[in-house]
């Protein structure tokens, strides 16, 4: 059985994709909330072997320690889902909290760099592999008050394109997935626990669900070896681009 490593498995897109993969892959599930990792592990252990890794993707040493010390039966990684990430705040650049901006660059960009650099030595010897990076519609189009979140996702787009070029001779595929509005804990985190503000983001239209994205990722992963889905943008029917949402 092949092995998949999923970052941000404790919530939203990462959790649903982990569930979707659990009939086909041995799983390494990552996040900071250990109790959620443990719950997911006990839920899925009837389907497959599950190993939990607790680290903050911003912490370079923690990322490398965790992945370098994986047990022997999890040391061949076939699929890496770089999903961990969040937005922090929604404010004009001049007013935005500097720590929020750092958290987005460190989590959404450096997190992918650290995790991928740590995983590649466990993927390259196989002569095959698949990396899926979760970008966003915010990686295609900049919107007001989201400057640094958008910058982080434009960087994910560049990382996906560049990795696809550099990993070409190594037989490793790279898929970039750019969703529009998905109803997860994303807005709750962006608005620092403000449930009312978070719910407003998804009001008056039907947003995507984490399951919709999980099924898309699964579709990309299950393609024949010679087929590489390079770039997938997925929007709710009611959304046309980063800022155009038709609400009732
Ligand atoms: P959630 O908030 O529901 O999930 C985010 C996940 O990322 C959690 O499992 C969280 O785990 C993990 N995570 C966040 N920061 C860190 C960190 N520093 N270290 C380790 N893990 C971290 O949001 P989504 O499922 O929506 O987000 C998943 C990805 O999808 C993100 O990259 C997001 O930018 C992207 N996205 C989301 C969209 C949306 O509308 N929801 C649209 C487009 C893209 P824990 O807190 O346990 O560490
Ligand atoms: C999350 C989608 O448009 O709120 O990446 O930035 S958006």
UniProtKB/TrEMBL annotation:
Cited PROSITE patterns: ADH_SHORT
One Pfam family in the UniProt entry: adh_short
Keyword Oxidoreductase assigned: yes
Oxidoreductase keyword on record: yes
Sequence similarity: Belongs to the short-chain dehydrogenases/reductases (SDR) family.
InterPro entries membership: NAD(P)-bd_dom_sf, Sc_DH/Rdtase_CS, SDR_fam
Keywords: Oxidoreductase
This protein's name: NADP-dependent 3-hydroxy acid dehydrogenase YdfG
Any one GO MF annotation of this record: oxidoreductase activity, acting on the CH-OH group of donors, NAD or NADP as acceptor
């Amino acid at each position: 059985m092949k092995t998949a490593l999923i970052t941000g498995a404790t919530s939203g897109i990462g959790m649903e994709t982990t569930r979707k993969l659990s009939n086909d892959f041995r799983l390494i599930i990552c996040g900071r909330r250990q109790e959620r990792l443990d719950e997911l592990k006990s839920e899925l252990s009837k389907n497959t072997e599950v190993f939990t890794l607790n680290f903050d993707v911003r912490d370079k040493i923690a990322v490398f320690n965790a992945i370098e010390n994986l047990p022997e039966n999890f040391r061949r990684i076939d699929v890496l889902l770089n999903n961990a990430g969040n937005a922090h705040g929604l404010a004009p650049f001049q007013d935005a909290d500097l720590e929020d901006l750092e958290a987005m660059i460190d989590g959404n960009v450096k997190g992918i760099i650290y995790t991928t650099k740590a995983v590649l030595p466990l993927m390259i010897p196989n002569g095959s592999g698949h990396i899926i990076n979760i970008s966003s519609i915010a990686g295609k189009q900049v919107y007001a008050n989201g400057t640094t979140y958008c910058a982080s996702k434009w960087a994910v787009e560049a990382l996906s394109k560049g990795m696809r070029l550099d990993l070409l001779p190594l037989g490793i595929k790279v898929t970039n997935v750019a969703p529009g509005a998905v109803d997860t804990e994303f807005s709750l985190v962006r608005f620092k626990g403000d449930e009312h503000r978070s719910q407003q983001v998804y009001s008056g239209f039907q947003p995507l669900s984490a399951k919709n994205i999980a099924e898309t990722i699964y579709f990309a992963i299950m393609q024949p070896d010679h087929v590489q889905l390079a770039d997938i943008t997925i929007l709710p029917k009611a959304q046309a681009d980063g800022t155009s949402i038709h609400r009732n």
